[in-house]
TrEMBL record:
Name this protein carries in UniProt: ABHEA protein
Residue ranges that the Swiss-Prot or TrEMBL entry lists as coiled coil: none
Annotated signal peptide: none
Keyword Cytoplasm: yes
Keyword Cytoplasm: yes
Subcellular location: Cytoplasm
Source organism: Pheucticus melanocephalus (Black-headed grosbeak)
Length: 141
């Protein structure tokens, strides 16, 4: 995620509109059409604005306890028709419940909770993570 960790800051990443445009540009540059967007943690600042503006351009969405879920209303989430797998570890007692509270307003969602996994559930329980992800991907049209 630009501007986090050791990555250089990107001026357009300062606003939700800029972050949405940045992600749009990345997907265009990669030539991706109807990808499944997987969004762990800090990437929510990019993925959620994109989902709300361009969810119809995604085949699916997999939020993994993303930040920024409270920035949008239940009504905004209700408009999104993108199939969604809300995925998190049951030991993530901080961000995951907060994200779930907002993301459960997405009309086409299902939830997968990884037992014994923390915030980085894909690192803690990689086999369970991949099983849940592949199951979701198989159900997409």
């Amino acid at each position: 995620v630009p501007g986090y960790g050791d990555s250089p800051p990107v001026e357009m990443a300062l606003t939700a509109q800029g972050r949405r445009a940045f992600l749009d540009r990345v997907l265009q540059e990669l030539g991706m059409q109807r990808p499944v967007l997987i969004s762990p943690s800090m990437s929510g600042r990019f993925a959620l604005p994109f989902l709300l503006a361009h969810g119809d351009r995604l085949a699916g969405f997999v939020p993994i306890a993303p930040v920024g879920t409270k920035d949008f209303t239940a009504e905004q989430y209700h408009t999104v028709q993108t199939p969604t797998l809300i995925l998190y570890g049951d030991r993530d007692t901080g961000l995951a419940p907060q994200a779930l509270q907002s993301l459960q307003h997405l009309p086409k969602h299902r939830v997968a909770v990884l037992s014994g996994a923390g915030h980085a559930c894909y690192l803690d329980k990689p086999e369970d993570f991949h099983r849940a992800l592949l199951g979701f991907l198989r159900q997409l049209k």
